[in-house]
Amino acid sequence: MSERTLMLIKPDGVARGLVGEVIGRIETKGFVLEALELRILEREVAERHYGEHVDKPFFGELVAFITSGPLVAGVISGRGAVAGWRSMMGATDPANSAPGTIRGDFATLLSENVVHGSDSPESAEREIGIFFPDLAR
Ligand code: IDP
Ligand code: MG
User: Fold this and answer.
1) Which has the least CB within 10 A, 30, 33, 72, 90?
2) CATH of the domain at 61
3) Which residues contact 77 (CB under 8 A, 6 or more apart)?
4) For residue 111, how far is its CA from the centre of ligand 1 (angstroms)?
């Protein structure tokens, strides 16, 4: 019944001092933090993580940005964690993210939209394996 998902606070979120805000929302929602770590991504790890976007015109920009500074990576768990965390994040483009969501409250730019969340349970297991091999199933 419990599900897990990968959560990232992207370099813009860390640089802007939003770590406590984002983690606080996860905790008050009732999700459980299974792993949490500040790190700078290697290019190869970023390219694997965003592999589904390799043919998109923004891929280079995306990898450059996600490796540009420290980010916070975490695994969160709970009932409906994948969809629940995506819902807390808000729509991908902050121009369309509802107020009350993280992107709706804290972002204006599509390329700097503060957070990441896996888009399915299958993606979550793939992404958790990339960031936290010790937690792979
Ligand atoms: P998601 O983060 O909501 O799952 P995806 O479509 O998987 O959205 O895209 C990954 C990330 O790539 C987005 O969060 C966003 O920061 C960035 N991105 C998506 N589309 C564009 C674009 O058209 N230009 C620049 N960056 C984009
Ligand atoms: Mg995505």
Assistant:
1) 30
2) 3.30.70.141
3) 2, 3, 4, 5, 31, 32, 34
4) 7
